[in-house]
Amino acid sequence: MIDRAGLAEFLRRRRESLQPEDVGLPRGQRRRTAGLRREEVATLCHISADYYSRLERERGPHPSEQMIASIAQGLHLSLDERDHLFRLAGHNPPARGATSEHISPGMLRIFDRLTDTPAEIVTELGETLRQTPLGVALTGDTTRYTGPARSIGYRWFTDPATRALYHPDDHALHSRVFASGLRAMVTLRGPGSRAAHLMELLLARSEEFRAIWNKHEIGIHYNSVKRYMHPEVGALELTCQTLLDPEQSHILLVYTAVPGSESHEKLQLLSVIGSPNIIPQTAPNA
């Protein structure tokens, strides 16, 4: 059963404890509100300001699990705080660990500061949870996929458009890395896992994947530099740095170019022109 008073109080206290800079928002001038404004929280949670305001006033409909998950992420809650919020709203908290998509506050704080850099947060199966604007300009909005196509490894073997962004000479290495990484996840998570389901789908749908899978390669990694073929600015060479959240199995990927290089200049151009939705979704979702 929903605890409306407890839910409203918890939301108010969490909102008031956050500052704009904590969540990647500009502070601006003439700020008198303690913490974030309701409108700012609503934007972070991808809900209407009216809906959020009613929750803080102990009114409105019973929020769904999806809505509570969005609010928990928008307020940068820890896992314990997220679980508490779910219980206040009358729901059982989601599972923790590898299947969870709740990004930790610490990783979000780092991500929110990467405003001028291509970066993304992905799951262990290569499903994009967050992208910076320049990340979207580089690869398109990869958060919009659904079903198995959320995994870049799945798209790599089933959607030719995914490969168009990468240098042709590197395609063979990408294939080996994706197959090797998925094998490691299947071994780690076991039969019945989401990794095992992806493996079964790819074995049924990709002859290339089957051939590589049968080689039983493990531990194949990228070189230090990834080469992209962007439709607007052309070839880019970017170094990818990673940060792992071991509790949630999420990975922060940050792409940088050598200062003064041609790729660095092209990233600066991308930050101006942008390039959303450059990869059409053609892969099947199930």
TrEMBL record:
GO terms for molecular function: DNA binding. It comes from the Bacteria. InterPro entries: Cro/C1-type_HTH, Lambda_DNA-bd_dom_sf, MLTR_LBD. CDD domains: HTH_XRE. Gene3D superfamilies: 3.30.450.180, lambda repressor-like DNA-binding domains. SMART domains: HTH_XRE. Residues 29-82 form the HTH cro/C1-type domain. This is Helix-turn-helix domain-containing protein.
